[in-house]
Amino acid sequence: MTRDTLTGSRIRERRLFLALRQAALARQVDISASYLNLIEHNRRRIGGKLLVDIARVLGVEPSMLTEGAEVALISTLREAAADAEKPVAELDHVDEFAGRFPGWAEVLAGEHRRVATLERTVQVLSDRLTHDPQLAASLHEVLSTAAAIRSTASILAETGELEPEWRDRFHQNLNVDSRRLAESSRALVNFLDDSSTNAARRGVPLEDVEAFFSAHDFHFGAIEQGQASPAELVADASELQSDAARTDAMAALELYRLDAEKMPLDEITQAVANKIDPMALAETFSCQLPSVLRRLATLPEEVLGRQSGLVFCDASGSILFRKPIDGFALPRFGASCPLWPLYTALARPQVPLRRQVVQHGRHATGFECLAVAWPQAQVGFDKDPMYRAVMLILPQTVSRADALAVGSSCRVCMAKNCQARRETSILDEEF
Q1: pTM value?
Q2: Which of 69-73, 300-304, 368-372, 415-419 has the highest mean pLDDT?
Q3: Quick one: CA dihedral 150, 156, 157, 159, positive or negative?
Q4: Strands (E), 243-315
């Protein structure tokens, strides 16, 4: 039965929904109740003025009666039958089923959509478990701490009399490990808890530090003016939920303080009033280029005259700190795009790089990326250098035609035939 022969069924369903008697509808469109009964049982075709009049009384468009609201519903039912991977003898009557029993058809289609959504959620969560290094590290921390507690408890339970010194030492280990397990478990639960009321769910030290810096707009006037020390700011920071986060925040603030001492706010504000030239600033303030790039990223937007982003990493490529900027996606989990100038700088230590870039699938806004890598400590004949790299990101009003196209992370990059790709994008799988 084709959809246009179900017009009568749709008229009947709509009439019953409005609690309108058959005789009342027939009287309003000037036909007999018996003729309307034939129409509603699909024994008489309907069209033209009569269809328009009935649609007007029922308060719907004529197309809703001829094509039906179940066009998409029928498509979903066919998908459900195909996904069932079982022969469906009544597949040819799916139109009639949707027309005669729209309620049950909607229930079936809704359950199919729900199952499809749940399957997709499982796929995404499975992908997250596989490719999320932060989650893997948190789980490893919980398991290793639990194993340490079990080992210590076994020694205390199975060994005979212990010397007081060793017994006290084992008790102290139990206390320290149990506190560490409680802290890491709480962080893991916060990380996984989708019902958290906190919009910026965190669970790892890096995210806590970023939330702390973001709460201050990456600028600390108290440090600039000598009114507070990094230790005092960290002690009062509600965003720092763990000892690891407080330690990392302290290190970042100490670096901030050193950069601020080398380049005081008033002096650097005058220096960048006309032009942002990191090399000239490094010469003016007699400091290294990495310090200049970090300092520029922490200046207030009204001082710099534009937004700014910052990323720096160690020799493994792991992100140690980041300041987001609109239009340039910085991945929350996983490795970043290897095409970033940040990583190119690691291959060319102490050589400043300037690149114009755009991101795949983002806005047409271009960015100027300034990057450099430097050794963390003085190198020696028997000591290999350990490099870190920093990249300052500045938005450009016009994107250049020869700008370098980069991504954010391979897992969410739409670039085709990219030589730097290390894993398949989930966008290709239409998650």
Answers
A1: 0.55
A2: 368-372
A3: positive
A4: 309-314
Per the document, the length of the chain is: 431
With vertex at residue 419, the alpha carbon angle to CA 333 and CA 394, rounded to the nearest 5 degrees, is 55
3-state secondary structure of 86: coil
174 to 352, 353, 356: CA distances (angstroms):
50, 50, 54
What span, in angstroms and rounded, lies between the C-alpha atoms of 269 and 303? Answer: 6
Token duo for residue 21 = 């008697």
Report the alpha-carbon distance of residue 246 to residue 231 in Å, rounded. Answer: 9
Q: Yes or no: say if 81 and 94 are a contact pair by the CB < 8 Å rule.
A: yes
Minimum mean pLDDT among 34-43, 94-103, 322-331: which range?
94-103
Q: Read off the pLDDT of residues 64-108 as tens digits, 9 standing for 90 and up.
A: 777 654 556 666 777 777 766 666 656 667 766 766 677 777 787
Report which of 381, 426, 388, 396 is spatially closest to residue 408, judged by C-alpha positions: 426
Q: How far apart are CA 108 and CA 220, in angstroms?
A: 57
